[in-house]
Amino acid sequence: MSAAFQLFAEHGFDNVTVAAIAERAEVGRTTFFRYFGDKQQVLFADDSAEVDRMCSYVRERADLKPGTDLGDALALLREAATASGPTALSPAHSAVLVRLLRESIDLRSRYLLTRQQRALRLAGALTEAGTAENVAVLAAHTAMACDLTAMRLAEGPEAYPARVDEAHGLLRTLGASGG
C-alpha cells in the first residue's frame, strides 16, 4: 500500500498503473490482485477494518442505548471513532488521499460510496444497540457529513481531527438560540 501512495504522490493517480505499483512493491500483478480489486481499492483498503472496530465499540456500549436521542447517538459514534484508534492512514498518506480526491471526480465518487457504506454499517450497529432506526440512520449520515466537512476544510491531515470536533460542535448549536 505504501508503494502505491508513493507513486500516487509522485505521479498522480491517473498516471500510475497497477504494474508500476506491483513493481515498486516488489510483487507480481497476480499478488496485487489477490489483495486489491483495482488501484482505487488501495486508497480505501483499511476502511473496512476501521468500521468493524467502530461497530464493535457501538455494540459493546449498548449500555448507553441512545434510543431516540439524536445527540446521544452522534456522541456514541464520535466516541467510537475516537476509541477505535487512529485512522488507518498515516498523515502522509492522508495528505496524498486528500489531494487525489480533490483532483479526481472518479476517486471522489468511490470515496463517497465507501462513506455511504460506512454510514449504513454504523446505522446497523446503532440499531442493534437499541437506537431507534430513524435516529440511527440520521446519526450515521450526520456523522458522515461531519467527516466530509472536516476533510474539505482541514488545511492538512493534522488539522482533520480538530475540524471533525468543530463540525460536531456546530451540530450541538442547533436549537441553542431558542428561536
Automatic annotation (TrEMBL):
Q: Where is the signal peptide?
A: none
Q: Which PANTHER family does this entry report, sorted A to Z?
A: HTH-TYPE TRANSCRIPTIONAL REGULATOR PKSA, HTH-TYPE TRANSCRIPTIONAL REGULATOR RUTR
Write out the GO MF terms: DNA-binding transcription factor activity; transcription cis-regulatory region binding
Q: Which residues bind DNA?
A: 17-36
UniProt keyword terms in alphabetical order: DNA-binding
Residue stretches making up the HTH tetR-type domain: 1-54
Q: Under which name does UniProt file this protein?
A: Helix-turn-helix transcriptional regulator
* Phylogenetic placement of the source organism: Bacteria, Bacillati, Actinomycetota, Actinomycetes, Streptosporangiales
